[in-house]
Amino acid sequence: MIVPHPKPVYSSKDRIIVALDVESVDTARELVAELGDSIGAFKIGLQLFTTAGPDFVREITGSGHRVFLDLKYHDIPNTVAGAAVEAVRLGVWMLNVHALGGSEMMRRTVDAVGEVSIRESLQAPKLIAVTILTSSDANELREIGIEREVSDEVLNLARLAAKCALDGVVASAFEASSIKQAVGSDQFLVVTPGIRKTSETKDDQKRVMTSAKAVSNGSDFLVIGRPITQALDKRVAIESIIDEIESAEV
After folding, report:
1. Number of structural domains, the chain?
2. Among the options 72, 197, 206, 213, which is catalytic?
3. Residue 153: count of CB within 10 angstroms of its CB
4. What's the pLDDT band for 148 if we cut at 50, 70, 90?
5. What single string gives the DSSP state of each residue in 47-94?
């Protein structure tokens, strides 16, 4: 008899990943200093990584903060696996690859991350796959030759990532519940960007949702940038989001 794993339990605070999508290292440091004890992790993406490099990632992980390295690796299997190994050595908590890179790329990366973590006694990060960006819609998918509807392609890529033994995916909250059902596991993580308050602009995101609705739909972690980093009172903004999450968990 197969005993199912219990559904993961996260504190409302730990669900929040603040996106450090800023232009300068000084601004990023200020945000980390101000918010580090109020949220679960920081996301370092392409903009900040390009200007600050791996040394800044080491600085943040070395100070005890969890880092989601959001570089969306997508290249030949050997290159992606090698890059992921270096991310493990930076001490990141989570990193991602593009599911569209295919199964060989994802399997090779899973194997490489596991091997280096054991060999060098490092903490293995959560390895997740990007499905379809929350800035994309059906028209953009058709432009690149994908005829499936957005939700169908997200599920297709999520199943592929699970088959390759990744820990989860980056996906819109609109697909979170369906993803859990499709892969048959509450342990499979859904990390959701595009979180907004209903009164806020969508900016460049097309498939957005409130934090309460996202958690209700099955999202495990919420990547939130501008609603926090551009708020007049950032801590109040975080407290408001935590209240929303807790209302969804009741």
Report:
1. 1
2. 72
3. 20
4. confident
5. HHHHHHHHHHHHHHHHTT--EEEEEEE-S-HHHHHHHHHHHHHTT-SE
CA 10 to each of CA 14, 87, 215: distance values in angstroms, whole numbers, following the listed order: 6, 24, 11
- Determine the structural domain holding residue 142 and report its residue range: 16-249
Which two tokens mark 65? 């903060």
Angle at 60 between CA 54 and CA 61, to 5 degrees: 90
* Bridge partners for 236 per DSSP: none
Domain CATH for 179: 3.20.20.70
- Whether 127 maps to a domain, the answer reads yes
pLDDT digits (tens, 9 = 90+) for 15-61: 999 999 999 999 999 999 999 999 999 999 999 999 999 999 999 99
CB-facing half-sphere around the CA of 183: CA atoms within 13 A: 28
b/e sequence 41-57, b meaning 16+ C-beta within 10 Å: bbbbbeebbeebeeebb
* CA pair distance 51, 42, nearest whole angstrom: 16
pTM of this structure? 0.90
Residue 7 lies in a domain: no
Question: Structure tokens of 101?
Answer: 């890179």
Contacts of 1 (CB under 8 A, 6+ apart): none
- Range with the poorest average pLDDT among 85-94, 133-142, 193-202: 193-202
Q: Interior CA angle at 169 toward 167 and 175, to 5°?
A: 130
Give domain status of residue 169, yes or no. yes
Q: Is 7 a catalytic residue?
A: no
| Buried b / exposed e along 61-73 (16+ C-beta atoms within 10 A) | beeebbbbbbbbb
Determine, yes or no, domain membership for 201. Answer: yes
